[in-house]
Amino acid sequence: MEEIVVYVHGKGGSAQEAEHYKALFPDCEVIGFDYHARSPWEAAEEFPGFFAAVRKRCEKLTLVANSIGAFFSFASLNEKLVDASYFISPVVDMEQLICNMMRWAGVSEAELAEKLEIPTTFGETLSWEYLCYVREHPVSWEIPTHILYGEKDDLTSMETIKAFAKKNNAELTVMPGGEHWFHTKEQMQFLDNWIKNRRPCKETENKDGLASPAYSSGNRAGADGLRHQKSC
């Protein structure tokens, strides 16, 4: 197999969501990863083995990951296992997100350090172990990457996603009015066009696995709200 696409779902999602992406990658085998990890250290144990087995079956492995699925991928994978990636509403700064949730819950760092775990009214359990782990294991991602971000994402700020994209030389596309969860007809159409317009033509693909010319951060509107790439 020349190229295999692995889809990694977000919290509350499932591997079955990969079905949606088969039409967007018609020449590839598309696999949904039914993982069990609930923390980055569990992902570091589970993800590499799965991806290594898939990588042996293809010349190129492309990752499509959503929300915390993207974060778990950051925490466990590298350029030896993944050649290119598409991230949808990725959680890119887990320390900041945990600190934000602590503020929303009115929990101090000292209190969390003492109690170790504190449930919240918004369905998340704050964990001292989790906070310490993400501080001790900063994210590093050197794989050619496209990021889709909703302007109204309530988990990751615009400043944070822009900083991550700049640091990791990733292309960032912002959907005006978009949310963290892409689910409406309009949002899914935007997502679909975003992927379609970033699939590299064989004759223009460069050594980094991205189409040339490279796209810069931001939106360059076409008829579908995205800048167009020459059809393959």
From TrEMBL:
Question: Among its keywords, does the record have Hydrolase?
Answer: yes
- Please list the GO terms describing molecular function: hydrolase activity
Q: Does the keyword Hydrolase apply?
A: yes
Q: Which InterPro entries match?
A: AB_hydrolase_fold
Q: Superkingdom of this entry's organism?
A: Bacteria
Q: Which UniProt keywords apply?
A: Hydrolase
Under the heading Gene3D superfamilies, the entry gives: alpha/beta hydrolase (3.40.50.1820)
User: Region Disordered: start and end of each range?
Assistant: 203-232
Q: What is this protein called?
A: Alpha/beta hydrolase
